[in-house]
Amino acid sequence: xxxxxxxIIGERLKEISKIVAVSSGKGGVGKSLxxxxxxxxxxxxxxxxxxxxxxxxxPSTHIILGVEGLQPKEEKGIIPPQVHDLKYMSIVYYSGExxxxxxxADISNALIELFAITRWxxxxxLVIDMPPGISDATLDIIRLVKKIxxxxxxxPSKLAFETxxxxxxxxxELKIPIxxxxxxxxxxxxPFIKQQVECNDLNFWGEIPFDNKLEESLGKVDRLLETVxxxxxxxxxSENLKL
Amino acid sequence: xxxxxxxIIGERLKEISKIVAVSSGKGGVGKSLxxxxxxxxxxxxxxxxxxxxxxxxxPSTHIILGVEGLQPKEEKGIIPPQVHDLKYMSIVYYSGExxxxxxxADISNALIELFAITRWxxxxxLVIDMPPGISDATLDIIRLVKKIxxxxxxxPSKLAFETxxxxxxxxxELKIPIxxxxxxxxxxxxPFIKQQVECNDLNFWGEIPFDNKLEESLGKVDRLLETVxxxxxxxxxSENLKL
Lengths: 243, 243
Description:
The structure is a homodimer. By secondary structure, chain A is of the alpha/beta class.
């Protein structure tokens, strides 16, 4: 990677205090909802926050935030639009409704381009909605973002946790910090995930109950922040990030 | 693709009557559970059935079937092990516990190899557990398997259906048949998915209620087939495949 844009990326991210990459072993665990709600929660607490949707497989934070059709402003790079107190950037600005998948090399290139052009300026937190699981894109983002911290989302299911185990092992090999694991969509009282997280030497942040009101709040941020889901996440975040 | 293995693949798949690729727009919608249960259900009805796990992102049918650690027999290619009345093949036989993701070209190559070496012989149905969403691997499988039919799984969520819309549009452009859409994990009575499916000119197969007994049945096939989930799926399949 001798791409001159790499140096620019370092400059672009210099003024960001903490970068949290919200990730998961597999899709469908609520990763995008947690990334969006985490970003909104931090913004409502008065922090300067950016949200960056890099989930190439199924970008959805624009639906959660209710901002479909938005376009960023170009000015010596790209200034992320201000949305619900967030600076918000998403790959859908560029990928739009196209059906064909980007090939591996194109994804790498798109990632470098997006990080190089986006002018976040000063931020307390940049929350990244990662692609689920372990992919070339995950590795690319890790290479590009030096100060990255992972927050991993799982459900109570064994199927989800098996994939978390693999992701955590990869991150450990690459010496990338994992700040915590959140157990989402909890239905029954069971210590399974907490035990597994702790015996894999990871930090269990807490659990969030399954919330069937969530679907109705998609696209309506004020309603989203009133859900049990958002209130539980807020407590977990305040406690673990010591805000 | 002038790879000589491509011709072999045609030969290998010639004796299979129907190939059903169970797919989804995004992960976490129950795709692998539906693929496994569909295959088991057809086998219990007396059909000759193969199950092929090609979900590179998070293979899990081996956990659902309770056959971790299995290895296939080599004999002029690979004979898939017989598991619970199924011929069962999975990429985990080869990928095992490795943490690094396969790069795009390696996935293409692994797919060609797997299809070229696997000796299914005569089958009434081959059920493929596809990678979620639209990826290079999806396109590769479509190119390799001429007689492929897609069965798409979604949840009631708008976030899941948005990704189904994209997948369906891609398949339509490629002229690949979609035999139906199953709505999984239904909690509340809502016509949203059925309406969306039908106004996108797709065939709505039916809905399956959210079943919190499913988790306990992972790895226990007899128990799995007794769940509400499996019984509903069986009815939907019998009706739509006219068995």
